[in-house]
Amino acid sequence: MSILRRGLVLIAGLLLAPVVALVWLARPALRDGWRERLGGGDAVKPGRVWVHGASLGEAHVATSLLLRLEAEEVPGFASAVTRAGRDVLAKRLPDVPHAYLPIDHPWLVARALDRVVPRALVLVETELWPCLIVAAFTRGIPVFAVSARLSDASFPRYRVFRFALAALLSRFAGIAARSQADADRFVALGASPERVAVFGDLKLDPVAGVEQVAADLVRALEGRRVVIAGSTHEGEEAAMLDAVEACERRGESVVLVIAPRHLDRVAGIERALAARGRRVVRRTWLDPASLSEGDVLLLDTTGELGALYATATVAFVGGTLVAIGGHNLLEPLFQEAPVLFGPHTENVRDGAALALECGGGRQVANDEELASELVSLLRDPKDARARGVAGREALEARRGNVGRVAAWLRAQLGDDAP
Fold first, then answer.
1. N or C: which end of the chain has fewer CB within 10 A?
2. pLDDT confidence of residue 418
């Protein structure tokens, strides 16, 4: 590194250090794993492919990709930003080194790269961390994006900073876009067209290494009809309870399972449901003999939702009734559970289109339509079952994106790939 560049990095570090410290102290979630967030951690054997997925869904994708690479004797390293993502990596990649992503500061990123010394850096979806990307590029580490996407909401904002983003995207050795629309957006922001290809959404592949439903959950839910509301946000739990109450007025009783997207909301959800006269049982306090139809099971753990969809008669996926943009709509279909979702699907457009096309999913415009569709599916269990099976078959027909991306990465790395 030239003396001038070293000086610029030093100045940038000095200017950014107070900002990073304030952000870190202001967000309690970032204090978890502080050593890794500051670039530290256990020693790692050099030459691994570093795959980063920010949160729960992206960590599942990272898991699938790393398992495929490991099967081809390409060693990996994994990272996440959130606790939920880190837990997924720990449970499903016990033999693969993993850590929290370092805070995007020149000194901290450099410390992490010195520790890991990766063969390549692979970022899942839209993880555009400038310091990390530039530092990897400067060290001669090829940077890739997989299942890369730019949502309807984010693309206009990114275009405002097109010139800065063009410089950043020029550092990428390859971008495996989720769709042609995403590929066109990356090119419009300055990515080299010859380095952008379309490989599909990696979330269309079944999640690798999904665990079986825990024995105590099987006993608790056996013989009962189950409705699961997964990855919910504020307002969606109340909407689901309204829908369940509409079902009960029609003589259709269920156990409602609620899995909030953010576990720090569990206590508040519990109070709100109890105030409406519901008996709420937390997953961590579950006595299998105590759960009855009409109760609410509140999932206050991570890593169990994907398998638990197998118990559902009907599922709802959150972030869709409120303006979040949606979460993984396909997880229920992998388990043959028909899925309901709201109008806000900007982040999961392809999954929503697939669910609607195959009949495995139904989209609702508001809380009232959610209640109506839930009643309809519960009153016709054969139709609900057929929709779930159709969804699973549609996904199986599209399986293979992870394998294709893994092969592409190996080709990009060349014959000297580990």
1. N
2. 47
- Write the CB contacts of 355 (distance below 8 Å, at least 6 apart in sequence): 329, 330, 333, 339, 341, 361, 391
Q: How many domains does the chain have?
A: 2
Residue 418 lies in a domain: no
Cβ(175)–Cβ(191) below 8 Å: yes
Q: Determine the Cα–Cα distance for residues 143 and 134; give it in Å rounded to an integer.
A: 9
Q: Is the pTM of this model over 0.90?
A: no
Question: Which residue is associated with the tokens 């109890």?
Answer: 274
Does a structural domain hold residue 404?
A: yes
Number of C-beta neighbours around residue 127 at 10 A: 19
Cβ within 8 Å of residue 59, ≥6 positions away:
53, 78, 80, 84, 85, 86, 88, 89
E strand or H helix at 65 = helix 56-71
Residue 363 lies in a domain: yes
| β 255-260/339-341 pair status | unpaired
pLDDT at 55: 87
Give the whole-angstrom CA distance, residue 417 versus residue 120: 10
- In order of 63, 214, 338, 364, 382, the CA distances from 250 in angstroms are 43, 31, 20, 20, 18
The 10s digit of each residue's pLDDT in 269-317 is 999 999 999 999 999 999 877 789 999 999 999 888 989 999 999 999 9
List beta partners, residue 174.
144
Q: Which two tokens stand for residue 202?
A: 């990696």
Active site residue 369: no
Find the CATH number of the domain harbouring 150: 3.40.50.11720
Which strands make up the sheet holding 280-282, listed edge to edge? 280-282, 296-298, 255-260, 226-232, 314-317, 339-341, 361-363
Give the number of C-alpha atoms closer than 13 A to the C-alpha of residue 186, restricted to the C-beta side. Answer: 33
